Amino acid sequence: MPELPEVETIRRELEPLIVGRELGEAWAFPHPKFLPALEAAGATITGVDRRGKYLLLRLDDGRDLVVHLGMTGSLRVTPSSLLPDDPYLRAWWQLGEADRLEYRDVRRFGRLAVAEPGAYNGTLAVQGPDALDPSLTADDLWRSLRRSRRAVKTQLLSQRPLAGVGNIYADEALWLAQVNPHRRTVTRRQAAALLEALREVLTAGLDNGGTTLRNYRTVLGAEGRNQHRLACYGRGGQPCLRCGTILRRTVLDSRTTTWCPTCQPR
DNA sequence: CGCAGCGCCTGAAGGC
DNA sequence: TGCCTTCAGGCGCTGC
Questions:
Q1: CB less than 7 Å from strand C: which protein residues?
Q2: Taking a C-beta distance cutoff of 8 angstroms, is the pair A163, A52 a contact?
Q3: What tens-digit pLDDT sequence spans chain A (266 residues)?
Q4: Which residue places its CA closest to the C1' of nucleotide C10?
Q5: Could you tell me the distance in Å between the CA of residue A105 and the C1' of nucleotide B1?
Q6: Are residues A8 and A122 in the same domain?
Q7: What is the CATH number of the domain that holds A79?
Q8: Which positions ≥6 away from A146 have C-beta within 8 Å?
Q9: Residues of A annotated as catalytic (active site), given as ranges
Q10: CB atoms closer than 10 angstroms to residue A221
Q11: Residue A8, class by beta-carbon neighbours within 10 Å (0-12 exposed, 13-18 middle, 19+ buried)?
């Protein structure tokens, strides 16, 4: 599931492959989530940016091709001499003379949009600052978390206090900061520890090329390596690496959640 | 406006 | 072997 480290890894690989090139003929899977791909045909890509889990392909007409990878989305660049041959392709664009940019998404949780910056819809329009934005302070996070009474983990996943965190890195950061995911209020000290932990686990994920549990691949087709470094996510029933207590696995707002009842007391 | 609940999707894994 | 059920979960949408 592409979260900030995975999307940033993709962004870095994609940028030198597509900037300055023209999107020619386009095709989209016939569904409203993917048909906006056709609106980008004819534009030239001037940059590749990221906000939270969203990729923003800047176009020379002033608009952005917005790409969300959902749970199973990936991008790749293929020679256009090879015909599209993949039942899970959801969109493609001829790229320059020789290549094709392909968007693949097995489960169709992703989506595409073409929009003016500043005229975004949905989560992208209301999400908080990027989790790695250095101007975000612990006090900002504390104040933001205080505005809602939802569980702290649910707030992280909402993308509103900060953007880019999904289920894996939320569990990892809450464990590292020793904050219980069910808490509805956090102290200033906990907010500071949480921000530091978030940045640590996201940076580690990025340094490891992302976390591949099943579908995630980089643009060049590589798997990430961070799945071997997870301390908490997916380790329910196994001992806490810090204190040895058996990690608990619960469901919080319909998200599987793993936490240590000793290190992260309610 | 906040938020709870639901639906979307399909391959993998496990039970029998 | 094969059928069935359960699970993974980000986000848009609806309605209170």
A1: A 1, 52-54, 68, 70-71, 107, 109, 111, 121-124, 157, 159, 166-168, 251, 254-256
A2: yes
A3: 799 999 999 999 999 999 999 999 999 999 999 999 999 999 999 999 999 999 999 999 999 999 999 999 999 999 999 999 899 999 999 999 999 999 999 999 999 999 998 888 888 888 999 999 999 999 999 999 999 999 999 999 999 999 999 999 999 999 999 999 999 999 999 999 999 999 999 999 999 999 998 889 999 999 999 999 999 999 999 999 999 999 999 999 889 999 999 999 98
A4: A70
A5: 34
A6: yes
A7: 3.20.190.10
A8: A185
A9: 2-3, 53, 255
A10: 9
A11: buried
Q: Calculate ∠ Cα A9-A198-A177, nearest 5°.
A: 150
pTM for the whole structure: 0.96
For chain A, the domain total comes to 2
Q: Note the helical H segments in chain A.
A: 4-18, 122-126, 138-146, 152-157, 167-177, 188-207
| Rounded Cα–Cα distance for residues A156 and A5 (Å) | 15
A143 with A115, same domain: the answer is: no
